[in-house]
Amino acid sequence: MKKKQEKCDVAVLGSGIGGLCSAALLANKGYETIVVEKLPIVGGRCATLKYKGYKIPTGVLGVPMVGSFKSIFDEVGAEFDVTPMTTPPKYLVGNEIIDTPESDQPDAILSRLCSDEKEIAILKRGINKARTWSPPSNEMSLQDFIYQYTRNENLAEYYNNMSDRILSTRAHEVSAKEYFQSFSGSLKDFQRVGFAPEGSIALMKALKKAIEAKGGKVITQCRAKKILVKNEIAEGVVVEGKKGETTILANNIVSNAGPKKTVALAGKEYFERGYLRELRNMVPSLQIWVTSISDRPLFDVPILYTYKTRRLVSFVCVSHVCPELAPKGKYIHYSISSPVSQIAPWNLKNEVNMHIQDLKDHLPGYNKYGEVLHVGCYWGEWPTLANAPIVGYNDIPQKTPIENLYNVGDGVAKKGGWAGGSPGCALTAKIVVDDIENRFKPGQSL
Amino acid sequence: MLTVNEETCVGCGWCQTFCPQDALHAWGYLEIDYEKCDECLVCIEFCPTDSLSMTNS
Amino acid sequence: MGQKQEKYDAVVLGSGIGGLCSAALLANKGYKTLVVEKLPIIGGRCSTLKYKGFKIPTGVVAVPMSGVLRSIFDDVGANFDVSPITVPPKYLIDKRIIDEPSDGQPLSILSRFCSDEKEVSMLKRGIEKAGTWNAPSNETTLLDFLHQYTGNKNIISYFNNKCDIFFTVGAHEVSAREYFLSHTGSLKDFQPIGFANQGSISLMKALKKAIEAKQGRVLTQCRAKKILVRNGIAEGVVVEGKNGETTILATAVISNTGPKKTVALAGKEHFDRGYLKQVRNMMPSLQMWVTTISDRPLFDVPFLFTLKTRRLLTFLSASLISTGLAPEGKYVHYSISGPATQTGPWNLKNEVNLHIQDLKDNLPDFNKYGEILHVGCYWGELPTYSNTPIAGFNNIPQKTPVENLYNVGDGVAKEGGFSCGSPGCALTARIVVEDIENRFKPGQLF
């Protein structure tokens, strides 16, 4: 039996943000590009599940409306269908709602959490220094950093919630360096944030369309079986689609499968020990997404940040911005939680139950009108962040030890690029595409 | 019979949304209602972690 | 007794390359600058001892004639009195002398060490990849990297010698990443390479002159006693000179004393644990310098690299280039060795004896005509490198956790900047001065 063979400039494995952004940029620059996705739908953790007439996100919810992600859509001419959020968030501390104008945040929140002005002033001075002078060391946790200035539990809780929300890791584990670097890094892109009315998958479909308009291909239900390596150079990939196995020969391979999977696909004999050790130290993080529905909004603004709960960190009443995500007359809400520790073992059922108990205990009206539609857990092989920025973590480079084999996506985010996921992933795509451009021209064979 | 590999299943709940029979329920772990499951295989196609399979018996 | 007080824009502690380069750049830009040096002579490990009419280097011998160090001299108008070396080096291996091939290809020398063309070409290919594709992980040693391609003892001895000279640490310990990054980093500055005609101290004196021409001051025999910190901000330094203690208030404090000493001077309570951990992990390295004199040259080219010896790494016939280093009719030679391991304990006396035995065994003319003038060991508190780039090492940032307190020098070299000391130290000065310029103007107090 003769095996089928195809040739292209770049083969992209996986259709997450990193994969589709790379492919769209490359196709737009004239590179013959093929994306293979093992699942029947594109988007990975930036997809949308349809269930009983509602739309459920698989990861990306708040979409940054400026910065690296958005700029790729502009560059390749893909439609960016996102409705901006104009109402500022509110804060729930215990059972009390703090309603404060955006311009006063986070000062107003901090003084609500702690009445000792002096303690707040000392803390703010320290935070300011970390942002304007120099971020603390990667060997220091954010909690240790905070404890330099205060032991006030309420103040610490503010940062706990913040780092959990943006880095899926609590203050006692998160690298203080990455926390502060993210403010001049990927968080800047969230200065304007919005929601995709057709779900985040619509953005990924728009990229797919842009790729196809330039002659690129996006093949779903096509699984990468093996990355082909000869003389330490990647030269193609064997994929298995609906019609059997095909060998795709390519000048460059861009993997959006995560660095560990990339190693498994190519064979670990091609990777040096130091690199493998860095990958072994990667800690994937867990987040739990609960989708709740109701006949009336369960809260009056789109975003509520929740403090002093068992697990819950935010509650998103997205129907206020995008009524399209639920059937007419219905409301959809997403709530997010992480375990207390990303390193320690956890009991997933307990984690889910505590999340839901938090909803019942802290959100007024939830018991009467709310109903759980769906529970999604993202961890392990299907994580929230593939390389959670835990104290002392390594950031893995986009280039692998195998020539012409790149990784993209959150597993290889740059320093300052973890927060909020999507901008960091888009940035890895930009970095990789830049490098490919410097090394190869479209259609140029080795 | 539809089987879930509990070692690799993370409980993302994707399968639940694609199941035409409403036979799957995710709550951290996946529960399968064998009364409803008609072995249409859609859930297997959509499982991101390859944790679902059809086994004999 | 009222303490004396003075005010400056910047005070620099220590007059090594990092300290004097920073001060010269700052004074040249109009900042009121003071350098304090505890010793009666300036230059630190870029100084020259005069002994019985001969000049003995304290660290820097070979001077990079292009790149960052040179550019600082040009910027501030300091005299750069260095003679270039135009003769290619030779290699001594198994009592044979090997010439550097004259084809200008840096890797063609490998064929002289190993006749197995296939093995050499595999290795060349791997090295090329590390340079043009991606440097290996910081967790990989150079030896592990080489072992991917070859087990040839001669070839490995070549790399062992190279990295022992560049980094003071053998291939089995050095970070493969730093090794390769240095080729596009600080090593580039050594094209061409030269010797200072009047010893390296003359370069430091030229910087001192440039500082004084711009109203800066360089005080010798003036020891820093304490770095003053208030609210996490450095505000000055207490020094003790010939006329007693003085408090110097300064907007920026630049320490060229090494990160550990900086912490001790400011008080470790001002530094976060993670930073202290990184500083604790710094590994100072040992090198031994033996100065040999004679009435005739002991070797015919200025640079001889000695491979497969017990300890000896290189033998420099400096008088062949700079006649000012020895009295008329006399010749001075410097030889360098490091211990087999920088992480293990060593017996210093044994190390010196093995070095001298190597000279006797490998240089035929040494026994007949050579005479040992001086033996200098640099390690521990006066190390060769204060942060040796051993696999898995951290590079320490120039900014300390204390605001407005910077480190300069080899302890805070940048990635790719560790090799051969001087350019990396000069680069830290450039980085710090640029940051100071961005933060405040001359005469502007916070």
Explain how this protein is built.
The complex is a heterotrimer of chains A (446), B (57) and C (446). With 446 residues, chain A is an alpha/beta fold. Chain A contains 13 helices and 19 strands. Chain B has 57 residues and is α+β, with helices and mostly antiparallel strands. Helix content of chain B is 18%, strand content 25%. Chain B is built from two helices and four strands. Chain B has helices spanning 14-18, 42-46; strands spanning 2-4, 24-27, 29-32, 52-54. In chain B, a hairpin with a 1-residue loop joins strand 2 and strand 3. With 446 residues, chain C is of the alpha/beta class. Chain C has helices at residues 17-28, 68-76, 110-113, 117-132, 142-147, 153-167, 176-184, 201-213, 259-266, 273-280, 348-362, 364-369, 422-439; strands spanning 4-13, 33-36, 48-51, 54-57, 62-64, 82-84, 90-93, 96-99, 193-196, 217-219, 223-230, 233-241, 244-255, 287-294, 303-306, 312-316, 331-337, 371-378, 405-407. In chain C, strands 1, 2, 10, 11, 12, 13 and 19 form a seven-stranded mixed sheet that branches. A seven-stranded mixed sheet of chain C has the order 8-7-15-16-17-14-18. The model of chain C has no long low-confidence stretch (mean pLDDT 93). Chain C contains 13 helices and 19 strands. Chain A binds chain C through residues 125-126, 129, 133-134, 136-141, 144-145, 148, 176, 231-232, 272-275, 277-278, 391, 397, 399-401, 403-404, and chain C through 125-126, 129, 133-134, 136-141, 144-145, 148, 176, 231-232, 272-275, 277-278, 391, 397, 399-401, 403-404.
Helix-residue proportion of chain B: 10-25%
The N- to C-terminal Cα distance of chain B equals: 6 Å
Low-pLDDT stretches of chain C are none
The CATH architecture category of the largest domain in chain C equals 3-Layer(bba) Sandwich
CATH class category label of the largest domain in chain C: Alpha Beta
Mean pLDDT of chain C: 93
* Number of H- or I-type helical stretches of chain C: 13
Query: Which chains have the largest interface?
Result: A-C, 30 and 30 residues
List the helices and strands and how they pair.
The complex is a heterotrimer of chains A (446), B (57) and C (446).
Chain A: E1 4-13, H1 17-28, E2 33-36, E3 48-51, E4 54-57, E5 63-64, H2 68-76, E6 83-84, E7 90-93, E8 96-98, H3 107-113, H4 117-132, H5 142-147, H6 153-167, H7 176-184, E9 193-195, H8 201-213, E10 217-219, E11 223-230, E12 233-241, E13 244-255, H9 259-266, H10 273-280, E14 287-294, E15 303-307, E16 312-316, E17 331-337, H11 348-362, H12 366-369, E18 371-378, E19 405-407, H13 422-439
Parallel strand pairs in A: 1-2, 1-13, 2-10, 7-15, 13-19
Antiparallel strand pairs in A: 3-4, 5-9, 6-9, 7-8, 11-12, 12-13, 14-17, 14-18, 15-16, 16-17
Chain B: E1 2-4, H1 14-18, E2 24-27, E3 29-32, H2 42-46, E4 52-54
Antiparallel strand pairs in B: 1-4, 2-3
Chain C: E1 4-13, H1 17-28, E2 33-36, E3 48-51, E4 54-57, E5 62-64, H2 68-76, E6 82-84, E7 90-93, E8 96-99, H3 110-113, H4 117-132, H5 142-147, H6 153-167, H7 176-184, E9 193-196, H8 201-213, E10 217-219, E11 223-230, E12 233-241, E13 244-255, H9 259-266, H10 273-280, E14 287-294, E15 303-306, E16 312-316, E17 331-337, H11 348-362, H12 364-369, E18 371-378, E19 405-407, H13 422-439
Parallel strand pairs in C: 1-2, 1-13, 2-10, 7-15, 13-19
Antiparallel strand pairs in C: 3-4, 5-9, 6-9, 7-8, 11-12, 12-13, 14-17, 14-18, 15-16, 16-17
Helix pairs in contact in C: 1-2, 1-8, 1-13
